[in-house]
């Protein structure tokens, strides 16, 4: 991501702000719906209690009257309701008496002959119809439209006065409920707007703070993409996941720089190793071409040099291909190996390759699960490394095989050469590394032998290391593998022994 993209609407800070806004709006909407509905429900419940109480009081007044006829009851009802005239904050009262006019404290409901100021005859007709609908008995609770008032919550009940059954009713306008709910809505809009604005500002600042390391990381990644591996993330006072991310990013860049440096060194070393034999071949051919009729001995001499250098190039290419294949899943083909005959046959062959004092120490009896070809290659490379740094005829090259654990086996190749300095014991397994000028290209290989040993060991899940020799001189390189199964019935301790073998020097 380009650094400037953090400022665009699709950047992290804007997405975080949008998410916070969405969550705030949804949360506010849910809270508003709950409070808005609860406010209306509470007020309607209070109105229901009030009108029920008013109806009960009106019923008590009617029951206490001394009238027996419809007109007498209607007169008592009229005196009661007109004593409490209807107003904006009062209760609508009415009594429906069979055979007598309805008593009500809102005279306009009974009907008017002329429209009020600002009203048309049609408006008056609608109001008269609403009044008649209100005076139609509906027992219990109902909501009725009242002229000039709006919706009214009405409660009606039957009252028995003597032998008469009259309807007593009371009502309160619902405008108070609407006003309360509108007040809640206004409060939510005002308070919610302020809170939302503050939340958006806070989320934007938080998003900017969180995305700042990512923008710096993006800028550094852009520089790395351009080939600059030097910049690193400034961890500073970062904490938590940001610090972990920054440290991981820096560690990744360190590993990347090391990999690039190793790649450059590898290419340079490989180029140098290939250039040397090619130069020798070209020089020998030029010497031969400079002679018009070269003698046969000269041709054979040049042929010998060229063949030797071609062999060297082939070996180097084979080693490079082997190292390249070491990370592939099919690099190994493990199988059970009978350890004593395998090691003895291998060491017999190695003892014929040089004039040294070869020795094979005792070894345990059992099977090792490993790739025999790769294991043999690793042991030959260890032996070749020892051979290159020991003296002819008198130099010692010894192989010791011993158990290290229940299933561990250690192959140790020892020599009495100059040894390996302590500071070089880890680096000798690097590609093209040589510890001293004595390990020259003329005396040895290209410096890939021990690197191959390490690749074989790691592919088997084992390890290779250089240690101090037990007798205090020379070098000791150990290859440790796992997967050893002792022979059936063998209860010997981990360090098994058979008779050590010495090999006569080849003549």
What is the topology?
Blueprint: H1 12-63, H2 70-82, E1 92-96, E2 103-104, H3 121-134, E3 140-146, E4 150-161, E5 164-173, H4 175-225, H5 240-289, H6 296-325, E6 335-338, H7 339-351, E7 357-360, E8 366-370, H8 372-388, E9 396-403, E10 408-415, H9 449-459, E11 463-467, E12 475-482, E13 484-486, E14 501-503
Parallel strand pairs: 7-9
Antiparallel strand pairs: 1-2, 1-5, 3-4, 4-5, 6-8, 7-14, 8-13, 9-10, 10-12, 11-12
Helix pairs in contact: 1-4, 5-6, 8-9
Note down, in words, how this protein is organized:
This protein is an alpha+beta fold. It has nine helices and 14 strands. The protein has helices at 12-63, 70-82, 121-134, 175-225, 240-289, 296-325, 339-351, 372-388, 449-459; strands at 92-96, 103-104, 140-146, 150-161, 164-173, 335-338, 357-360, 366-370, 396-403, 408-415, 463-467, 475-482, 484-486, 501-503. Helix 5 (240-289) packs antiparallel against helix 6 and helix 8 (372-388) runs antiparallel to helix 9. The model is unreliable at 1-8, 437-444 and 492-499 (pLDDT under 50).
């Amino acid at each position: 991501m380009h650094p400037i993209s953090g400022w665009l609407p699709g950047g992290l800070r804007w997405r975080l702000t949008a998410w916070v806004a969405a969550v705030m709006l949804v949360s506010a909407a849910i809270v508003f719906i709950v409070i808005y509905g609860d406010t209306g429900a509470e007020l309607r419940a209070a109105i229901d209690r009030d009108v029920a109480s008013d109806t009960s009081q009106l019923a008590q007044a009617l029951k206490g009257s001394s009238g027996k006829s419809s007109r007498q009851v209607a007169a008592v009802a009229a005196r009661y309701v007109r004593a409490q005239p209807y107003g904006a904050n009062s209760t609508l009262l009415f009594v429906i008496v069979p055979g007598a006019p309805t008593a009500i404290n809102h005279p306009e409901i009974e009907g008017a002959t002329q429209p009020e100021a600002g009203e048309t005859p049609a408006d008056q007709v609608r109001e008269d119809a609403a009044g008649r609908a209100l005076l139609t008995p509906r027992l219990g609770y109902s909501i009725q439209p009242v002229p000039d008032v709006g919706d009214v919550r009405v409660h009606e009940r039957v009252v028995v006065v003597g032998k008469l059954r009259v309807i007593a009713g009371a009502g309160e306008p619902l405008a108070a409920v609407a006003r309360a709910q509108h007040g809640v809505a206004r409060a939510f809009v005002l308070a919610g707007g302020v809170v939302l604005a503050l939340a958006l500002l806070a989320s934007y600042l938080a998003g900017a703070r969180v995305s700042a390391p990512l923008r710096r990381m993006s800028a550094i990644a852009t520089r790395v993409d351009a080939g600059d591996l030097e910049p690193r993330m400034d961890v500073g006072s970062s904490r938590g996941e940001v610090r972990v991310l920054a440290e991981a990013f820096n560690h990744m860049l360190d590993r990347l720089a090391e990999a690039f440096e190793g790649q450059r060194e590898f290419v340079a070393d490989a180029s140098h190793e290939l250039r040397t034999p090619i130069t020798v071949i070209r020089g020998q051919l030029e010497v031969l071409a400079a002679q018009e009729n070269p003698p046969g001995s000269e041709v054979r001499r040049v042929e010998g040099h060229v063949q030797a250098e071609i062999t060297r190039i082939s070996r180097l290419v084979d080693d490079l291909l082997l190292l390249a294949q070491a990370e592939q899943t099919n690099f190994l083909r493990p199988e059970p190996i009978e350890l004593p005959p395998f090691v003895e046959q291998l060491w017999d062959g190695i003892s014929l390759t040089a004039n040294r004092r070869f020795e094979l120490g005792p070894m345990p009896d059992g099977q090792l699960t490993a790739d025999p070809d790769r294991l043999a290659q690793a042991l030959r490379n260890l032996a070749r490394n020892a051979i290159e740094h020991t003296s002819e005829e008198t130099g010692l090259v010894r192989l010791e095989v011993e158990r290290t654990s229940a299933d561990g086996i250690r192959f140790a190749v020892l020599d009495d050469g100059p040894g390996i300095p302590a500071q070089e014991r880890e680096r000798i397994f690097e590609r093209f590394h040589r510890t001293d000028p004595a390990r020259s290209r003329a005396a040895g290989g290209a410096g890939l032998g021990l690197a191959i040993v390490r690749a074989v060991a790691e592919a088997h899940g084992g390890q290779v290391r250089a240690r101090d020799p037990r007798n205090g001189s020379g070098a000791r390189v150990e290859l440790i593998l796992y997967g050893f199964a002792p022979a059936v019935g063998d209860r010997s301790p981990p360090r098994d022994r058979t008779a050590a073998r010495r090999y006569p020097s080849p003549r």
